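can u do me a favor
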């Protein structure tokens, strides 16, 4: 009598062991990186891709030059696969009442580098001691961050409240206001500077993506007819201080970030000569993860470590 292989579980012809491989391959779009995530050899991961192509009747990943790109069917499939895996983890593998500090799991968080610098870094340092089995992947924020929650691309989104979805639960993380930042020797940057003179100075601005949405402060200023003179555009807040030192440039940044930068670079900040509303950074998670004990614990620890 034939017996099925013990390491292979099938449902209507599909090897369920391949679901995790499918998610990793479609997310990474790179066999080597997917293999590292799965803790498999590159050969085994390539074999898994070949089996998936055969069983699903689709190329899934298509060679485009030197890289792989997902097929239309793969793009449609990915959020569904993520949802299935999350439900298995939440409803089947996770025990109710278990201690989240003992969990072994990777948590994907979408956040800007600003949030990562001022709040995630101290929070994750706290979690490294309290819950060593948890690992974290920080995903760069996109122009449509709510879609990452809808598609199960991330477990937790941290974004300004204006960018979140009304369909999923959220909670405030922290608030911050804005200041004007410049080189410590910049004599043109002084208290009581007029808004007109400040806007005429050469500015360093942040654009996360080419032709991307303006940042919170730029959006407000532009809406009220105020335009900065752009000198340098950078894709990351972390690059701002390097573009300000030993120059006459200035930048509008969040106060928490300015304090962080001034502690490491020869910079100074003054009160901004304009009333820009505070930025409110919030957590958001998929409604199906509302009872996720690990995510509840992570949010709590991040809140406890905020400055």
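np, heres the sequence
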């Amino acid at each position: 009598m034939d017996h099925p292989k013990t390491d292979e579980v099938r449902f209507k012809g599909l090897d369920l062991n391949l679901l995790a491989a499918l998610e990793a391959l479609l997310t990474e779009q790179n066999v080597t990186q997917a293999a590292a995530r799965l803790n498999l050899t590159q050969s085994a991961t390539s074999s898994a891709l070949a089996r998936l192509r055969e069983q699903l009747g689709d190329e899934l990943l298509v060679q485009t030059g030197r890289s792989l790109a997902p097929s239309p069917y793969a793009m449609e499939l990915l959020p569904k696969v993520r949802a299935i895996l999350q439900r298995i983890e939440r409803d089947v593998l996770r025990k109710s009442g278990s201690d989240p500090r003992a969990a072994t799991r990777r948590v994907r968080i979408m956040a800007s580098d600003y949030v990562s610098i001022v709040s995630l870094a101290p929070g994750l340092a706290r979690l490294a001691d309290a819950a060593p089995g948890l690992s974290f992947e920080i995903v760069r924020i996109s122009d449509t961050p709510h879609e990452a929650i809808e598609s199960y691309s991330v477990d937790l989104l941290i974004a300004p409240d204006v960018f979140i979805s009304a369909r999923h639960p959220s909670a405030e993380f922290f608030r911050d206001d804005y200041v004007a930042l410049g080189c410590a020797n910049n004599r043109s940057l002084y208290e009581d500077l007029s808004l007109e003179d400040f806007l005429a100075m050469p500015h360093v601005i942040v654009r996360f993506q080419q032709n991307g949405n303006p940042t919170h402060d730029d959006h407000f200023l532009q809406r009220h007819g105020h335009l900065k003179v752009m000198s340098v555009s950078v894709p990351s807040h972390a690059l701002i201080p390097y573009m300000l030192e030993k120059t006459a440039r200035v930048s509008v940044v969040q106060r928490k970030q300015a304090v962080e930068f001034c502690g490491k670079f020869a910079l100074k900040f003054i009160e901004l000569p304009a009333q820009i509303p505070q930025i409110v950074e919030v957590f958001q998670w998929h409604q199906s993860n509302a009872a996720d004990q690990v995510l509840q614990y992570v949010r709590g620890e991040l809140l406890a470590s905020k400055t």
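The first strand starts at residue 10 and ends at 11. hope that helps!!
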